[in-house]
Amino acid sequence: MALALAGCSELVADSAEPAERTTVRVTKHTDGDTLWLSEIGKVRLIGVDTPEVYAGVECYGREASAFVARTVPLGSEVRYRLGVDERDRYGRALAYVWLRDGRFLNRLLVLRGYAQPLTVPPNVEYEDNFVRAARSAREAGRGLWGRPGCSGQ
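RESULT FIELD:
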């Protein structure tokens, strides 16, 4: 029963897929919050920040990257929607991404403890959702919240 409930917590109404979205395939993984999608190229996930794996590996960075690689393997079909600001200063597309089964990847990273919320206006649509997911992960000691030294503990 707990397993079923855990899955349900990943599919909440306030992170449901919007009607306007585009289906693409994952073509490359960079790290936990950056991947490449067919048709749009390099994508930075909106509203989340995973630990770094380049220029100094941060605590839980490799785990976050591996989670994304397992969750959306190369060739996986995903759906996305760009943010209000569609590109960042590095030229990456800024996107919300949903898995084929409807789970919201951005939120899933935070809920499982692989990322912390990172709000950069005007892309604030799911900010409250990400903050609630982080609180849940922190209270349960999931992911980086369960590692001494990872989350400022």
